[in-house]
Amino acid sequence: MNMLKRRLVWVLCCSMLTLTLSGCEFRDIDLRLFVVSIGVDVSEKSPDLYNFSFKISIPSGDPKTGEEKSLLITEESDSIAEAIRQVKSKVDKELDFGHCKGVMYGEAYARRDISKIEDWTVRRRDMQLLMYPAVAIPTAEEVLRAEPPTERIAGNAIFLALSEDGTESPFITRTYSFDLARRMTEVGEDPVMPVVEVGEKNVLNINKVALMDKSKVKVILTKDETRLFNLLDLRNLSTNFGTRVDGELIEVNTDRTRASYKIVTSPKGQEAIHFRVRIQATLEEKEDIKLLTPEEIKKIEGIYNKELSKAITDVLEKIRKTGRDPLGFGLRYGGTHWNNKTEMEEWAAIYPHIKFNVSVKLRIKSTGYKQ
Amino acid sequence: MSSETHKTHLNASHAKQWLQKQLHKVGDIEERELKNQEDHALLLYFKSMCDPVVVNEDLINRFYELNSLKIYEEFIRSFPSTIEPAEESELMRNMLRGCVVVFIQDRVLLFDAVLINAGDIQPASTENVIQGPDDSFTENIEVNLNLIRHRYQTANLKSEFMTVGKISQTRIIILYDVTKADESVLEELRKRLSELKSDIVQSASEIERHTMHPQLRLFPTLMLTERPDRTVMNISQGKVAVLVDSTGYAILLPAIFNDFFTAMDDKIQLPPIGWFLKGIRYIALFVTVLMPSLYVAFTSYNPEILKMQITLLIAGSRATVPYPSFFEVIFMLLAMEFLTEASVRLPKAIGQTACVVGGLILGTAATEAGLVSNIMIILVAAVAVTNFVIPINMMSSGIRVTKYIFILLATFFGLVGIVLGVVATIMYLTSLRSFGKPYLKMFAVEWSNKGDQQSG
């Protein structure tokens, strides 16, 4: 017992001593600078050089004032590793990428090849895999420089939008960096990225999706196409659809949406994808204020079904024409066929001439009218 | 014990001489000779230990009222606790306890006139309940036994009397329900109590310390309680209670981890509320043990785990703090411990002042001076409050110490250290045994024969 006590006191003394010897490797939270997002642009000077922008969040002492401070450092370099070392010599604290949640690829850069940076972000130990990659228009630096007035923490506005934690827009296609990296190597499914634009008065506008040819942006869909793409890609997309019935504007708000498809491979030469889209909606806006009868609702539903089927077929055909497969039809085909050696080649032959049969069933659940 | 069972009895004159020799220089001894025309008797007793009213009424007055010495002797013998000692050591021991030695001719009798200085039954002070009985054990073992028998009225409640402590001769009673208690536990208890070697046993916790193994440990494996209702409930669950004279506490054994998180309120409240209260206590356990160490780990090793808002908040409020996070935590926690300790020891009137002053300095001034971060104050307050949520004081003290081990681990190894610490603690707790029963067994009563009570 005595021996044990003496030993315990000895251990305690030693550990108390070592506590005072914290070296310079021990960096507390206040000795770190948190890089919240990274931007990559092509340099105008040379095709081999890139502009790397780092947005660093500066903690404010008083959280109540709500002021947000950030620092944007742009470095020109041929590699990002080199750029980081250069930035390190410009700041007084340790750079920490643990909270880096966004990589913005400038449009010009994204149309070239993003694989190098994407690989770096998933390779680095301290980077999170649930980063939000996005295409930035006009440049990544511009997007990072924008500070929307609603933002309370530096760089947070863009993540709140991209993650859909904050706003829930039907035009935002949420993409994580692990998913991007997976799709970049996946056979039969191509990556997509949301597009962030700097609008007037520092407002960020995210309403398009970029379809990618594995590592470079191939085509950017328009706003309405993006919405339909999201309708097909996601479940329970909350959006509105407008149409005109006898010249009168009608808008519905979707409650539940569900898209499913089936690949039909026979007869040969007439392969088709049957898309079934089920939408449950409430009537939100209508010019005429009189009450609707069930027959009129049926009529509105019929018009919607026709119009949406047409619009969706157009989008699918547009996507097919680019040769890209962001919805993963190829992966489904490969996954449901057994001839492992040849199935993807077969798919490559089928996909260019495949037909889309889209059937939309929109049901207006409620007229939204309270009596 | 009646005199008939003794074949031999002491020689009065020898005994008297022996006693006088032993009691040389003992000031509070009273030697009174009673005489009438033909007879005489001698009373010998400790003034401090005997009740003077009893001595006057039953011994002195009667001597002159009763006509013959024969009747007087029979009168004394008629008291149930009167003993005729067989040997001198027995004589001495009972005298020290508070018996009057009565020499009648060549007979020696011990008359029980023990003076009991027990206060009234006080309300419980360390285990408070909101609605429920307020009684707590007194310093008198007989009163305590009475309190228990009153609540547990069956002949199955057995009581075994023992004494421990070579000098203190502390009386203890082992209480158990013979139909429910585990014989192996009883055997083990008797063995350990008989092995107890200390001279003085003054408190129940001393018995706790001397009988349990290993001696160096953070978590109590015996329950000390001052509440008769808790004792009764535990006895009804098949546990063994040990009452110790001259302390207001009983020992309950075997005790498991969960027992220390049970308050008597749980049974008084409606069951879902009882479960909620118990849940709160376990949450409090984790908060008080892990919060400070998590703070160290998050601020110094793994800031990426927190949300960005919190990260920046901590970083911002730590901007003026001149030393590393673990110093901050240890300083603040030590300051809090000093406050707690001071408020226990100080008289009530001053204690309040000390707390207010200390709290002000810690809470406001330290943050405004930029010595500690705001978050740290919240954390210390949370740790202090949650620590007091644990109902049994011995356990909450153990937990108080445990958190420093976790801080140390977090300081050296970050989050990994904390995880290892949790694993090690669980392994340690499962390895503990309380009288052969696994300590971390979460429910004291087997599910198969579970009644309306689960643990205590």
Characterise the protein shown here.
The complex is a heterodimer of chains A (371) and B (456). By secondary structure, chain A is α/β, with parallel strands linked by helices. Chain A folds into 2 domains: 192 residues; 136 residues, GMP Synthetase, Chain A, domain 3 (2-Layer Sandwich). In chain A, strands 1, 2, 3, 4, 5, 6, 7, 8 and 9 form a 9-stranded mixed beta sheet that branches. In chain A, strands 10-11-12-13 form a 4-stranded mixed beta sheet, with helices on both faces. Chain A contains 11 helices and 13 strands. The longest helix of chain B has 39 residues. Chain B is an alpha+beta fold. Chain B has 15 helices and 11 strands. Chain B folds into 3 domains: 111 residues, no CATH class; 141 residues, no CATH class; 168 residues, no CATH class. In chain B, a hairpin with a 4-residue loop joins strand 1 and strand 2. In chain B, the strands form 3 sheets. Chain B has a 5-stranded antiparallel beta sheet with strand order 5-6-8-9-7, with helices on both faces. Chain B has a 4-stranded antiparallel beta sheet with strand order 1-2-3-4, with helices on both faces. A two-stranded antiparallel ribbon of chain B has the order 10-11. In chain B, helix 5 packs across helix 8 and helix 10 packs antiparallel against helix 14. Helix content of chain B is 50%, strand content 13%. The interface between A and B is medium-sized, with 29 and 28 residues.
Summarize it.
With 371 residues, chain A is an alpha/beta fold. Chain A is built from 11 helices and 13 strands.
- How is the largest sheet of chain B built, in terms of strand order? 5-6-8-9-7
Largest sheet of chain B: 5 strands, antiparallel
| C-alpha-based Rg of chain A, rounded | 26 Å
User: How many domain units of chain A?
Assistant: 2
Percent in strands of chain B:
5-15%
Order of SSEs of chain B, N→C?
HEEHHHEEHEEHHEHEEHHHHHHHEE
Give the helix level of chain B as a range of percent.
Answer: 40-55%
The count of helical stretches of chain A stands at 11
Count of spatially separate domains of chain B: 3
Unreliable residue runs of chain B:
1-7, 450-456
Could you give the distance between the termini of chain A?
Answer: 84 Å
Instruction: Name the quaternary structure.
Output: heterodimer
Biggest interface pair, residues each?
Answer: A-B, 29 and 28 residues
Q: What is the strand content of chain A? A: 25-35%
Poorly predicted runs of chain A are none
Q: What is the end-to-end distance of chain B?
A: 38 Å
Keywords (chain B): Coiled coil, Membrane, Transmembrane, Transmembrane helix
Transmembrane segments (chain B): 240-261, 282-301, 321-339, 371-392, 404-429
Organism (chain B): Paenibacillus glucanolyticus
Protein name (chain B): Spore gernimation protein GerA
